[in-house]
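Input sequence (609 aa), recorded before submission:
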Amino acid sequence: LKVFARFISIFLPIVNFGLGLWLDKITNRSKQNLGKRATQIRKLLTKLGPAYIKIGQALSTRPDLVPPQFLEELAQLQDNIPAFSNEIAYQFIEEELGDSPEAIYAEISDLPIAAASLGQVYKGKLWSGETVAIKVQRPGLADSIALDLHVVRTLCIWAQANFKQIRSNLVSIVDEFAERIFEEMDYENEGRNAERFAELYGSMQDIYVPSIYWQYTGRRVLTMEWITGTKLTNLEAVAAQGLNATYLVEIGVQCSLRQLLEHGFFHADPHPGNLLATPDGKLAYLDFGMMSQVKPYQRYGLVEAIVHLVNRDFDGLGRDFVKLEFLTPDTDLTPIIPALSYVFNSSLGAASTNIADLDFKSVTDQLSGVMYEFPFQVPAYYALILRSLATLEGIAISVDPEFKVLAKAYPYVAKRLLTDPAPDLRNSLKELLFKDGSFRWNRLENLLNNARSSDEYDLNQVIDQTLDFILSDRGTFIRDYLADEIVRGLDTFGSNTLQSVTHAIQKGIGMKVPTPPVTAQPSSNGLEHIQRIWGILQQTKGFDPAIVLPRIPQILMKSETQSFGQKIASGLTQRMAARLIREVLLQDVPTEIVVNDRPQLALPTHTRR
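Predicted structure, token format:
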């Protein structure tokens, strides 16, 4: 009976909304009424209660399920729910912690200072003197959300069986969402998330994570350190404290990149209320109920996608979407690749090759249209990443309208490519720097220039790992390339020097010298690039050439170094022999002249000095 009654209370408003869409279609007013319908669905979900607010927030990051025009409206869903009574909240505190709030806390606020769909927060003080935030869950929340999710899941099963247009697995999406929301309702789990977050990211410069008081925490009550701070979006209040909001947003971007690409454990709900500027100039994270995990192969896949984007390799980017589970392996990429090319080329511009020039919102808006049009299935982890980054960029733009998230993110990506020894990222670096057998020096210069602006960039580590990599089996391709470059350079230098010396001697002893020698030009300007790279390294914080000196004896003893030297010597010998044959022997070989149909030997046309 409960299920049936709830189904009716949900079904009737949804049918009414569906009828509105149908009328728009038959009267050709769909485009005209789009904004109205988007607002209508937002209000409808708010009215249906906590589970549907959370569902709407989740759908705001699903461009494969929701038309682009609705995404922005759903993203505005807020947990504006009236507070419940103190009597119930105090009862929960006593049930969870074993005593009355008056006995547990020295002070507790008369009214909650914040109320949301899952719970409300009081300000209190422990008997030991610490000021704390006391989070208490709403009554009947688990039963209410379980009932709503059961109804939604049943509707999804029916819809998937009856509508062939539905490409995504709606049931698995609901299951994933249910897992996340029940984790969010477990305050002990939130406490563990907060401690893990502090362990991984709390040591970053100007990042602060509040402490958890486990003695006063249970499944429905959480007691954590009280954070005095100001929302980053409250620019006047932040400025009044003498704080730099733009700097704090940059700190948030760097922390998010560490979360997504390094450790994979990330805060999936960094809205303005969960990011505070503290009076001492730190960025404090709050509310660790909604967290998610990015697996290693997914993290490396995201970096590979960035590399393919930098290279404008949209075939590779299409394969990345398959690897990252956006597309099934049997998907025909033929029509998708031109669409990806159009989205990123139009956002990046024909003249630019720097991913930092991309406008994140512009790209995500256009990409949403592509994902809705083609058979994309956005994985749950990516939906949360998208929500996290989109929210962060929204905060950033409210602080600084010219702020570009990707411009601040690329130095970190460059640092990872240069310093991370993982084989997947080594391959990505190789793919970025080499194309059709040629080395792209400008890409290396760009990486080094970007990486040196990353606060955590350790140049000595880069030099150390570069030497280890070049002298390993995985670095064979670089050793071969460097050997060929050195051979060409030395051969050209030697040839030019010999010609110049010969010309000078001939001129000095009075021999007739018709014209100055024509010196050969190097086949590549590798030395010029190396000089520029050396200049970049010298200007990088922490540069110390002495770090290489202690390693020189070890380097010289390695078999790879010896074979490297042998390859250079062999290459020079072969080139010298080839030049000797070409310039001395072949030019003096007599040619045949046919006279009266009989071949005659002709004398050489000139005599070499």
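Checked by second reader. The radius of gyration is 33 Å.
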